[in-house]
Amino acid sequence: MPENSKTARSDAWIDWLRDYVAAATRFTQEDPVEVTAENERELVAIKAALYARALTLCEGALLLIENDRQLDFRVHTRGVIEAVMHLIALDRDATFVTKMKEDDYRSRQRRVKLHLDARDFKGSDEVRQLLEGFQAQGLQGSKSIDAATLLNGSQFERLYRTYRDISGDAAHVSITSLDRHYVENPADRSAMLIIHPTLEDFEVHMTFAELGISMTIATLILMKVKIKTDLWDEFQALLRRYREVARASVVLQDEPA
């Protein structure tokens, strides 16, 4: 694919992402979310916080790709998808709050054990007593969340596939991910260390596309909570633009190099 086509495609995605982040930020700054039922307070709070986390990471991803930090952009996108996966699970089943609490409690129990077992623990006696008191409560049957099951049976199952793809080749230290950072010349066996590797063109397109649809899904879910917004028409226009950019990107990708 000609270099100018690649640049045009990335520029179109970046322009769209800038406008989406700006609109989503204004969306969070509209009138506060109203909670009329006490039993919904916690559910609303967690949904809103998940949206804020996704948007925070999305804005970070935008800053990274604006500076051509492609791998960092991809890793940040994984964080957005993870937040949105939890938001989708919570929207499908309000009792998922309990699972999130159990997962958090189990994680804190494990971290406390690590600190107490550390040979270089430097906490005061009071801190140690507090940690030991918490540890004494035990796991209480709590279970960890299996990310692989979050989207089972939903129309968004593909997001988990993307999440795993990014995890395997970018986010976690794996042989696949490390392959980007060490390039060997087969002619003389010399090697170069690549600090900020360039992604394949289809990877950049896929990352933009999945980041965009993730934030769109998250916004639609939060709209159910907020109900009132002055930005509905703007988000609809952004969705139409998303489809146009995505279609144009697919056409450009299919062009001969």
Describe this structure as you would to a colleague.
This protein has 257 residues and is mainly alpha-helical. The protein contains 9 helices and 2 strands; from the N terminus they run αααααααββαα. The protein has helices spanning 3-28, 41-66, 70-92, 96-117, 125-136, 158-171, 175-178, 201-226, 232-254, and strands at residues 182-184, 191-193. The protein is flat and about 60 Å long. The termini are close together.
Adjacency order of strands in the biggest sheet: 1-2
Give the percentage of residues in beta strands. under 5%
Taken from the alpha-carbon principal axes, the silhouette is: flat
The count of β-strands is: 2
Give a quick account of the main beta sheet: strands, pairing sense, barrel closure: 2 strands, antiparallel
Low-confidence stretches: none
CA-CA gap between termini: 3 Å
The SSE order reads HHHHHHHEEHH
In helices, the fraction of residues equals: 55-70%
Structural class: mainly alpha
Number of domains: 1
- Report the total helices: 9
* Radius of gyration, CA atoms, in whole angstroms: 22 Å
Nearest-integer average pLDDT: 90
Keywords:
2% strand, 257 residues, mainly alpha, flat, single chain, 9 helices, 2 strands
List the helices and strands and how they pair.
Blueprint: H1 3-28, H2 41-66, H3 70-92, H4 96-117, H5 125-136, H6 158-171, H7 175-178, E1 182-184, E2 191-193, H8 201-226, H9 232-254
Antiparallel strand pairs: 1-2
